[in-house]
Amino acid sequence: MGENFGTIRRIPGIYMMRRETKIGAMCEKRLFALLRLALWHGDEDVSVFDGMTEREWSDVYELSVRQGVMAVAFDGMRMLPEALQADFDNRIQWGYNADHAMKMYRRQLSVAEDVCRVFSEHGLRMMIMKGLSIAQYYPVPAHRQFGDIDIYLMGDYEKGNEIVAAHGTEIRYDFFVHSEFRIRGINIENHKTFVNAEVNRTGAYVQRELERLADGIRPLKSVSGAYFPSPEFNALYLTRHATWHYAREGIKMRDLCDWAVFLHNELPNMDVGEVMRMLRESGLERYASIVTGICRKYLGLGSSLPFSEDYPELVERVKDDIMTFENPDKHRDISFIRAFRDKICNRIERKWCYDLVVPDSFYGNILYSIGNYLSKPAKIFKAKL
């Protein structure tokens, strides 16, 4: 690459990607500029794109892929003056893959509508969470990249599984909060619960609140017959879902874009006092404040919640972590002992996230994971369908 994003350094049992210099700062700056253009269509200082080389554009493209925002960044690139846009080869590659993302989105919509229709015929209501429902907030919904479709059948989890099984579709049950099945190549997660309520107090609190809020559903225009959650539900759910993944395995810029467009579109419809109460009582306020700070500073978000405190130093540290951390591959060709060791080493490497950012206990999380892996060793090697 023209800009070095770090070198692979060895820590016991695991490989991590770490930035050792600030050489990649300009590439990051350019990606953030493209995302701001794509998300808000506002004025932007485009001088950072002056005189870019083919290699530098390739670096921006590759970073956008790693961060799950390739198609959104492509929209931003196309909004630049023609003389500043990427070279021909990069535009072709970028455009081809953005078009593929759009085709995948349409395929997701088609599958979601088919599944929703089957459930509706049996009297079940289907709420769609995360991906497809968050995509509606983007200027180009089809360019919000995602894989799974997360659904909740309003308390009819078992009945939903029976309906799917009756159609001859295989269902997997080896997950904490949902079952999984696959329709035309698209993975669907049927949630029994919204979060893992057994792991700690935060999980139990969030699950109780989300159950209370679950009935506040609204029709999802993009999927006929489906629903999506209330703003209050999403504020709590998106925050808890992100904190669980952030400390354990990292998140991507896509997750921050989701939060930014969600707040921008739903803040006027939100019971802010209710949301702040839940964030504070659950211990999630600090994380939400940090992430909102990143969105405001780097993604150009003009909205905010009334947080009790700002965390400028953690805004920078978490932003750098999101941009540089690479979760180790989940190996399939190594021994149980090595896989177990690698997972523990990864948790130790990210202890600071538990200490400074998320409400979960580092040692409690380790003990909980050990108990689960010892009771069901196959979970170490589990993969998405």
Structural overview:
The protein has 385 residues and is α+β, with helices and mostly antiparallel strands. It has three domains: 1-86, no CATH class; 104-229, Beta Polymerase, domain 2; 230-385, no CATH class. The chain has 15 helices and nine strands. It has helices at residues 25-40, 54-66, 70-78, 88-121, 131-135, 157-166, 201-213, 231-249, 253-266, 272-282, 285-298, 312-324, 336-349, 351-356, 362-375, and strands at residues 7-11, 14-18, 127-129, 149-152, 171-172, 178-183, 186-191, 218-219, 227-228. The strands form three sheets. A five-stranded mixed β-sheet has the order 3-4-7-6-5. A two-stranded antiparallel ribbon has the order 1-2. Strand 5 (171-172) and strand 6 (178-183) form a beta hairpin. The longest helix has 34 residues, at 88-121. Residues 1-23 have low confidence and may be disordered.
Beginning-to-end CA distance, first to last residue: 33 Å
Q: What's the number of domains? A: 3
- Helix-strand topology string: EEHHHHEHEHEEEHEEHHHHHHHH
Structural class: alpha+beta
Give a quick account of the main beta sheet: strands, pairing sense, barrel closure: 5 strands, mixed
Tell me the strand order in the biggest sheet.
Answer: 3-4-7-6-5
Helix content: 40-55%
By DSSP (H or I, 4+ residues per run), the number of helices equals 15
